[in-house]
From TrEMBL:
Disordered: annotated segments: 295-322
Domain (GHMP kinase C-terminal) ranges: 207-280
Residues of the GHMP kinase N-terminal domain: 65-147
GO molecular function, one term: kinase activity
Assigned protein family: Belongs to the GHMP kinase family. IspE subfamily.
Biased composition (Pro residues): 308-322
Enzyme nomenclature, EC number: 2.7.1.148
Primary role: Catalyzes the phosphorylation of the position 2 hydroxy group of 4-diphosphocytidyl-2C-methyl-D-erythritol.
Organism: Prauserella alba
Name of the encoding gene: ispE
Protein name: 4-diphosphocytidyl-2-C-methyl-D-erythritol kinase
Keywords for this protein: ATP-binding, Isoprene biosynthesis, Kinase, Nucleotide-binding, Transferase
Length: 322
């Protein structure tokens, strides 16, 4: 059973104060991008986890791996044990940077959940799968859903946003990842020390700009409250952000908690040009071109049965209005 899962960027990320449970209340606009991980799950004699590709050495191979934890979450939901469900082999083909603010671990978790639910022919509704996804992490429900969505709560409460237009992005991967909790803590620290002005404005206008399909309009509105914290921890991100715009992008921002920088480009051709210039600028480890929105976790190859091209749920959930 093979599942592809998108990465994400937050075109808008407004961070509220820390809650009693340690999470921050968010208003965010997610967009799923064409840079994807592939998760393959199969019944095996013995359980195993293989990881190949981008950042493979930095990915945990034990029970800390989010894809692996999907087994425990499914077993708990079914009131059984992983041993009862049977040994499985999980293989991750990674393209999404590890600890890069693009939800790579979340993507693998969503892919494993969908893959295992399909492999084991579990009768789970979309809502059930989404609830299980939220147990694995705040971003995992979005990795399942994909597209463009408004996220609230800790990021797990989603309202899909209808967008007919494709946007073109250039992604600058950094040498090393950044820890998400560390970046949230740094924002708290900066706020205690003097309240940096919010970078993210009003989400409604961002959704309108997405609906208009006009990248120039969107470029003026993208913003991420975590950017100042990521830049405080990695000051050289300032140079990367500047270099993307100098290379011809309309605007750039840190993706989620960073350190990946995402640059919005006028069109596909411009994205290729910007990526070539940015590669030559020597301000990051790797440059990739991606577009969005794309669909969420999707079974692309199943053993025996027809490929489950669409998720096994109602494809038209309620939508936010632009
Ligand atoms: C910042 C964001 C923006 O989409 O993405 P990434 O940069 O990680 O991709 C997310 O909020 C990351 O979501 P995710 O990576 O799933 O986080 P979780 O595993 O749920 O939480 C990890 C830790 O991040 C902090 N956290 C996460 C979400 C949130 N709303 N408030 C928080 O303060 C908490 O310290 C938590 O213990
Ligand atoms: N399948 C996975 N792929 C990548 N990282 C994983 C995975 N499972 C667990 N992790 C852990 O989660 C951390 C955050 O990873 P990731 O989801 O890639 O970044 P981010 O939260 O910045 O989007 C990593 O540093 C790694 O230790």
């Amino acid at each position: 059973m093979t599942v592809t899962v998108p990465s994400k960027i937050n075109v808008h990320l407004a961070v509220g104060p820390a809650r009693d449970d340690g999470y921050h209340e968010l208003t965010t606009v997610f967009q799923a991008l064409s840079l994807t991980d592939t998760v393959t799950v199969s019944a095996a004699e013995e359980s195993s986890l293989q990881v190949r590709g981008e950042g493979e050495k930095a990915v945990p191979r034990d029970e800390r791996n989010l894809a692996w934890r999907a087994i425990d979450v499914l077993a708990e939901h079914l009131d059984t044990t992983p041993a009862e469900l049977g040994p499985v082999q999980i293989a991750l083909e990674k393209n999404i940077p590890v600890a890069g603010g693009m939800a790579g671990g979340s993507a693998d978790a969503a892919g494993a959940l969908l893959g295992l639910a399909t492999l084991w022919k579990l009768d789970l509704s979309r809502d059930e799968l989404t609830r299980l996804a939220a147990k694995l992490g705040s971003d995992v429900p979005f990795s399942l859903l994909g597209g463009t969505a408004l996220g609230t709560g800790r990021g797990e409460e989603l309202l899909p946003v209808l967008t007919r237009h494709t946007f073109h992005w250039v992604l600058a991967f950094a040498q090393r990842g950044l820890s998400t909790p560390r970046v949230y803590k740094e924002l708290d620290r900066l706020r205690e020390a003097g309240e940096p002005p919010p970078a993210a404005g009003d989400h409604d206008v961002v959704i309108e700009a997405l609906a208009s399909g006009d990248p120039h309009r969107l470029a003026e509105l993208i913003g991420n409250d975590l950017q100042i914290a990521a830049v405080s921890l990695r000051p050289n991100l300032r140079r990367t952000l500047r270099a993307g715009v100098e290379a011809g992008a309309l605007a750039g921002l840190v993706s989620g908690s960073g350190p990946t920088c995402a640059f919005l480009c006028e069109d596909a051709e411009s994205a290729v040009q910007v990526s070539a210039r940015l590669s030559g600028a020597g301000v990051c480890r790797t440059v990739r071109v991606a577009s969005g929105p794309v669909h969420g976790a999707r079974v692309v190859e199943s053993d025996g049965g027809p490929p489950g091209g669409e998720p096994p749920w109602d494809p038209t959930p309620p939508q936010a209005h632009a």
